[in-house]
Design goal:
- There is one protein chain.
- The protein is an all-beta fold.
- 0% of the residues lie in helices and 58% in strands.
- It has strands at residues 2-3, 13-14, 17-18, 21-23, 33-35, 41-46, 53-60, 64-73, 79-86, 90-94, 104-112, 115-123, 128-141, 150-163, 169-175, 189-193, 195-198, 202-204, 212-221, 224-234, 239-247.
- Strands 1-5-6-7-10-9-8-11-12-4 form a 10-stranded mixed sheet, with no helix packed on it. Strands 16-15-19-20-21 form a 5-stranded antiparallel sheet, with no helix packed on it. Strands 13, 14, 17 and 18 form a 4-stranded antiparallel sheet that branches.
- It is elongated.
- The two termini are 24 Å apart.
- The relative contact order is 0.16.
Length: 248
């Protein structure tokens, strides 16, 4: 939760029409919620963790209304998405693909009696996950009458760097076909992670019948969810892995 600093524009008045006065989310880190101590909006709170859809609740002061909303790049010059405002309480809309790794700003046009404002709320890009790893397989068990051969000891040696671009990021291990390795220094989930590096060796298992190990590293914030999938073929004579990344 953040408090904003304001930068009041000069009150330019022409024929009783007031220029838009900017109220900035000036915190150095984007997050889900911003509280405002000045202006028509008291808070903005993003409810989604999607790179392709944004929904947020807004709270306004008495007699204030917000009439339009849009998502821009961080510089505020490129329109990313035009959003809808509902009942002066919610903002929502689709975000086209291609902006997943772009830091953004939500801009609300709001009015309070005879004044008009443009209220800013920072929205982070989807998290970044950089991952290098080695799989160590040891202690081969020969096939039995009803079981395939398999390695009894499988260890992942990671070099994992994560940046969620927000103080309230969340990361977790996704288990697809077996118990995934606990890569976060022995943990499978971390809350309130901003940026960190992990190199803790982690034991894991794999599906001996399909000779495969598939798990994911998922990180999310108010700007989106990033899923990195690590898929291994674990054979007696060779072990090969493949990494892929998607944004949601």
């Amino acid at each position: 939760m953040k408090l904003v600093h304001i930068m009041a524009a000069s009150a330019l008045v022409t024929s009783s029409v007031y220029a838009l006065e900017p109220i900035y989310d000036a915190d150095s880190s984007a997050g889900r919620t911003t509280q405002y101590s000045y202006g028509p909006v008291t808070s903005v709170s993003v409810q989604t963790s999607s790179a392709h859809y944004l929904a947020a609740f807004i709270s306004t002061s008495d007699q204030a209304s917000c009439t339009s909303a849009a998502l821009y790049d961080e510089a505020g010059t490129t329109l990313v998405a035009q959003l809808q405002v509902s009942d002066n309480k919610a903002v929502y809309g689709n975000v086209e693909a291609g902006f997943e790794t772009v830091s953004k700003v939500l801009k609300l046009t709001c009015h309070d009696q005879n004044r008009s404002f443009i209220v800013h709320h920072k929205v982070p890009s989807a998290p970044s996950i950089h991952y290098e790893r080695v799989l160590e397989a040891a202690n081969w068990q020969a096939p039995g009458d009803r079981t395939p051969g398999f390695y009894a000891d499988v260890t992942i040696v990671p070099q994992l760097a994560i940046n969620t671009y927000a103080a309230d990021g969340l990361c977790s291990i996704v288990e697809f076909n077996t118990a995934g390795p606990k890569l976060f220094n022995g943990e499978s989930q971390l809350a309130n992670i901003h940026s960190d590096f992990f190199s803790h060796r982690a034991k894991t298992g794999y599906d001996a019948y399909s000779s495969s190990l598939v798990y994911g590293i998922k990180c999310s914030n108010a700007g989106g969810t990033t899923l990195l999938v690590d898929e291994w073929s674990v054979l007696e004579t060779s072990q090969t892995g493949n990494l892929s990344t998607d944004y949601y």
